Amino acid sequence: MAHFALVGPPDARRPRLGRPVGGSRTTSAGGVALLLPDGEPVSGRGASARAHAAVLPLGRALVRAGRDDGLVAHVVRYRGRGWNGTDAALARDASWAVAEAVRRYGDVPVCLVGHGLGARAALRAAGHDAVGAVLGLAPWLPEDDMAAEPEPVRQLVGRRVLLVHGTNDARTDPELSFRFAERAKKANRDTCRFEVHSDGHALRQYAAEVRALAADFVLGALFARPVARPLTDAMAAPPPLGLRMPLAAGFGGSRRR
Q1: How high is the pLDDT of residue 143?
Q2: Is residue 196's pLDDT more than 50?
Q3: Residues 73/91, Cβ–Cβ less than 8 Å
Q4: Which of 159, 160, 184, 207 could form a disulfide with 221 if both were Cys (CB 3.0 to 4.6 A apart)?
Q5: Residue 190: CB atoms within 10 Å
């Protein structure tokens, strides 16, 4: 097993939830969205403030959309920014965050929302009983390796799963997320994937549409709200149709605030 040189004493670091995003309720909650920022495949550096800030707009959008249902959102502050091979440090921090959310808010449904390596962490941590849904944006997933175990999917059974990937992502390969979605769909039919034409890793070009889709999915999964027809169709469609669903320009425009 490879060993990684870490900067500073990692065991002294602790993951944190921090304050609720955007004025979320703190005394009670109907559901919790945990946002997992992007990271790096190998690193001993501390958590990235930039990656943390990058998911805040989505967190605020989710809180605005779910305020009537008592949605609380937190951005998970990792111990560090590296996945670091079999350590899977970001996934362990994500699992801790789910347990901490349950400790704070009680028996409420949780949706894990991750970007890049945070999406991989969200998918890995989905096995906790409190997790009802997983949203992975531009997920960083490893290349197929015959010498290694494939990325697990059994923990997704019974969860609603949505992957969203820009077709021009130069950091994480969209084809790898499609292959993962194919395997996940076989284990869990409530899996779908949207493609954002010509968008990159940060999904900035169609940020409004991505946030609208995310809010539709999260509120539908946590609070049984009706969802938009494209999302329903994607969940119901067999592969590859439901795993290559295009995100249309203007999606959710009538519901934006």
Answers
A1: 82
A2: yes
A3: no
A4: 160
A5: 17
Which residues neighbour 9 within 8 Å (Cβ) at sequence distance 6 or greater?
none
Which of 134, 70, 137 is CA-nearest to residue 105?
Answer: 70
How far apart are the C-alpha atoms of 18 and 248, rounded to whole Å?
34
Supply φ then ψ for residue 32, to 5 degrees: -130, 130
H or E stretch at 192: strand 191-196
Token code pair at residue 41: 């495949």
Which residue bears the tokens 């709200």? 225
CA–CA–CA angle 31, 233, 204 (5° rounding): 65
Tokens of 183: 């395997």
pLDDT number for residue 11:
45
Residues 6+ apart with CB under 8 A from 232: none
Task: Please state, for a pLDDT cut of 70, what percent of the chain lies above it.
Answer: 91
59-109 pLDDT per residue, tens: 999 999 999 999 999 999 999 999 999 999 999 999 999 999 999 999 999
Per-residue pLDDT, 137: 98
Taking a C-beta distance cutoff of 8 angstroms, is the pair 140, 116 a contact? yes
Query: With b meaning 16 or more CB within 10 Å and e meaning fewer, what string describes 160-180?
Result: bbbbbbbeebeebbbebbbbb
Task: Report CA Rg, the chain.
Answer: 17
The letter for the amino acid at 113 is: V
pLDDT of residue 144: 72
Q: Are 116 and 85 in contact (CB under 8 A)?
A: no
Q: What is the spatial distance between Cα 105 and Cα 26, in angstroms, rounded to a whole number?
A: 8
For residue 66, what are the CA distances in angstroms to 10, 20, 72, 152? 36, 13, 8, 30
Average pLDDT over residues 149-163: 96
Query: Has residue 252 got a pLDDT over 60?
Result: yes
